[in-house]
Fold each of these.
Amino acid sequence: MSNSTKRPTHISEEEWALRIKLAHCYHLIDFFGWTETIFNHISARLPHIEGEYLVNPFGLNYTEITPENLIKVDVNGHKLDDSPYDGNPAGFALHGAIHAARQDIHCVIHTHTNEVSAIAMKKQGFSHDSFYGAQLYGRVGYHEFEGITLFDDEKSRMLESLGQKHILVLRNHGIAVGEFDIERTFFLLWTVQRAAEIQVTSGALGGEDVLLEQSIRKKCADLTQMLIKDSGFADKFYSAMVRKMESEKGPCW
């Protein structure tokens, strides 16, 4: 991974490593075509600091994100550094609520690609009958659309919808996924996106789907969780995707 930007003296090595990883994540989302121009957000909780996380400066393209220009905010969206940039208030309610309530989630990614947004509009939600959809079995919560996510009073309802799951479908809107670190969160998002793409394509074909038994769905989901928990699988996947991106587009910064 590239790291040509020099670490500012006021930022610890641990935080700088997180900033590099998070900035790469923004570039990866753009590389895969999952951006929504300057909108949406990826946040990462700061290590060993309660209630503080990094997020993108509002107004920059994802390809303009660097480790240094990421902004630091608290769970209420208040900026904690002297950055000339501000954040997007529409992201603070969602990201702040999850970071404040779920100690097992250190990274949250919010997207609304065509495929994910299409599924968010369907009453059925995600099917668990494809290879990727089965891996999401038991991990998806659904939250009813209340408009643009700006207001504090919606936080408790979003958290109730999420429960102890790691995928939150925002009905009529998009999706948020969260995991223990950036690598696992990105892999989860990739799995969700692939499940959405296959479900949309399958629906367009018409005809009857082959349905999986619940026991098979659960087995797939459990095995995936076991695979990414301690094996370094997500780390290898993330590093490979960064290498692929930089081999095609050059260093990110």
Amino acid sequence: MAKMIFVNLPVTDLARATAFYEAVGAEKNPQFSDGTASCMVFSETIHAMLLTHDKFRQFTPKAIANAKETSEVLICLSADSRDDVDDIVGKAKAAGGTIDPGPKQDYGFMYGRSFEDPDGHIWEVMWMDMAAAQEAMSSSPEQVGA
């Protein structure tokens, strides 16, 4: 069985956050959603658990970071093409997100952009031609920052 990832994100308005993630292409799984959480499915292996602050606090005693002011994590999703990257970022903008909070990345073999959701969580969207990336990295590894 493939490993799965569940990214848990605290949100201030569960309905708004759910609508935002549906707009960028995730599907809500009602089996794992209620008035305190929405399980947003990007693929069979990638899920974002949107949690109200009260629900999020049940999992950690730490203070919840204000993602609009503090970097907490950068999450990156793969895309099937350069056009898909632009499409997802465009959907995020149309749904009320902030686009390209960081610089666009274009290395020819790799193309990436990002968006910020209404709660300030940053998602990167990246396409890569794996064969060209391996060739570029083997001939010039300093070309792409880590």
Amino acid sequence: MAAPQADAAVHSMAAPQADAAWDDFVAAHPDATPFHSRAWCEAVAAATGHRLEPILSRDAAGRVRGLLPLHHIRSRLFGDALVSSGFAVGGGMLAQDAAAAELLADSAADVARARGVPAVELRGGPVPDGEGWRAEEGVYAGFARDLADGDDAELLAIPRKQRAEVRKALASDLTVTTGRGEEERRDHYRIYATSVRNLGTPVFPRALFDAVLDAFGEDADILTVRRGGRAVASVLSLYWRGTVMPYWGGGLAEARGLRANELMYFALMRHARARGCTRFDFGRSKVGTGPFAYKKNWGFAPQPLTYARWLAPGQAARDTNPTSAKYRMQVALWKKLPLWAANRIGPAIARGLG
């Protein structure tokens, strides 16, 4: 489909110049995700220091035809890349037509060349077919489905074995709280940091979680499962166009035996319905991993995700996969770190993952 104006142009501009056009375009586009929003993109930039470089494609009349929010991720360990969007599972090119998408892709490559950045990474959206671009498939899958009308119907939507675990969790003495205040934030970060340390990966800076919560306002919150008042599992979720997205979640070692995660996600479904949500997006997982199998156990069908990458001539792709063989020794050592040490060192490393 051709652009409505032949003399289209692409402009990369500072966020203050693009604010209104950016917001209006995201609000009107049916495929927009929270990771295209200024709320997400500016929160990531503020919390991590990674430069935000939004690209808007406009037609000759000045109307926005496409958006590509890029973060310039810089890391001595993992290398440099322009990423759309930073720390997101989505946020690739958002365009009205193929011509606008082509302009965005070309402009992203131009910005990379001008900055001396060896790669551009797009998470979702159309895959460019220009020189240097390639699709990346078979690594991740997404999991989403509609919410049922109530608790009974929601239970029936869960396969029998997992349903039994949820029923046991519902009958336990665990309690659930939701909120956005300091106590919820502190407990969530402690649990999340412990969970990722146990998996052998560095934790993101707490400033990132706080910035996202502050930017999204009532469209983000934390749900925490407690035993005797003590937090044992917690998840930070985003709410976007009737969909709840549990985004950063985890549990302490004891959470598994307590079935705290089972209660957490079922309680989140209930909480989301009360907020008017009709869909549950369980997020992405790497194919063949434990989280991939866990989400299938809940009755979610995996949907393959296709990402795209541009590489400058002679450059190799960044490897930020913690399951990569090259990081096997580091992962094993990280699992043994005291939590205080992991929390002190981890954020500086995790900033480079983007």
Amino acid sequence: MLDADRCWQAVCERDAAQDGQFIFAVRSTGIYCRPSCPARRPKRDNVSFHPDAASAAAAGFRPCKRCSPHGQSPAENLDALVIAACELLDNSEPPPTLEQLAARIGLSASHLARAFKARTGLTPKGWSEAQRRACLEQQLPQAGSVLDAALCAGYSGTRGLYQQLAALSPAQRRKQGAGERLRYSIVPCPLGQLLLASSVKGVCALLFGDDADALLAELQHRFAAAELHLDDLGLGNELRQVLAQLNEPQRAAQLPLDIRGTAFQQQVWRALQQIPAGQTRNYAELAAKIDSHPRAVARACASNALDLLVPCHRVIASNGSLSGYRWGIARKAVLLEGEHAGLGREKL
């Protein structure tokens, strides 16, 4: 049974997440559409809701030519074209230019560039660079030198590698982080177990879980051959601030952070840090803020290793549901409930 009020809200918001969940039809035009249809919004009194395109057609309505509700939507067609563009970039040497890629895909260069960045968070050139860097990361551990790894990955030399912003230099990454010293501590908290790790630059990981051994294994996986040292005493101040924020969300921890990620991930994480405690944003709102795509934002949120300090729990689905969360929906609900309660106490 369709909830008419919720369906109408999705139509007003042109919520693409609701495409496939229902169809709306307009009596004055005789047309049925997807919730995300970009056409002019109809009057509420003229709108009816149907579970699928077949039901709308059976009721005498015809499909909208703009949003193609009976087949792939324009957005889905663009998704497929961007996937094809990624495959061409990955399998061509040298990678095609934007103009060459657009000609192969069948879009204008400007249209392809916008669609590509919206769905991946990168330009086609940035995608090729990211793939080349990923190849470099695979080559570094077994290469005889950084130069050998760079040449195998398609670089002409090593100069550009050392000009890139990164937490570790290429030489350190060739040794899989060997020589980097991280301190960590695992303590019980209201959400189960909490692991906090810090480098010389600041807190580099804050992880939640049910099992201390599993948290330590995740830290070891993230930082490969780095030296890990248990330091409950030395990290006491950082832990006290984090635990205080869990108990009183308005007391935000003020800690130096060693945030590691791609340029796009860091852009998303900076946007997360701007969401005040007690408030939420949906993925579409966050994507619009940084001129990206909700799916790209969701992937960046899932890669965040510093939750609470980089609050990805404050991002929800367009329909108001909690959506996914790396450390479990139950923890996300507790965090948001605590922040809302704290905001209410502040107003009293």
